[in-house]
Design goal:
Radius of gyration: 17 Å
Shape: globular
Structural class: alpha/beta
Strand content: 15-25%
Oligomer: single chain
Number of helices: 8
Length: 196
Amino acid sequence: MAKLLLTLAHPNPESLNAATAKSMQEALEKEGHEVRMNDLYRTKFDPILNFPDFQKWEGGSVPDEVKPFQKDVTWADGLLFVFPTWWNDRPAYLQGYFDRVYTKGFAWDFDENGLVGKLKGKRAFLSVTQGSPKELYQGLDIDMAHLHSSTQKGTLNFCGVADVKLVTTYGILMGQPGVPEQHVKDSTEAAVAFFK
């Protein structure tokens, strides 16, 4: 069975994203996996990358408050992320988490051959909600094939995580009956299947 780190990035503990994360955690634990919940807004993790962070890195260390988050990533065989899409990207809190935790020397580095993804061998699962319907994104000429590439490719692939599964649901804010429940069901079932 796998060790899984589930990161939730939504400020509302009663949100659809929170319900999805809870459902996924329960189902994965029922399958025998060990799941650690990383609820970013509840941890009070400071997502602001600041100059002292750079000073620590130059000295070969990381800030004390970042160390436990990196230990969790190291511990995990699989990484799960549950978050909404805001302004066609991930929430700023999740961006700040990546900025401060997935650092050079820990999650990635360079050697004489170029980029070294230091999280190679880990797998990742993304459950993402979109408030608007797909037609709105298409009407704005947004490149749907690359809507989540900042997380899939720019972060996870960059850090060596090659196997990434995405489940996304559009139109969450449209109030269509059954859509939120279907998202929870689809994400939970897909996560269980992905980590079989």
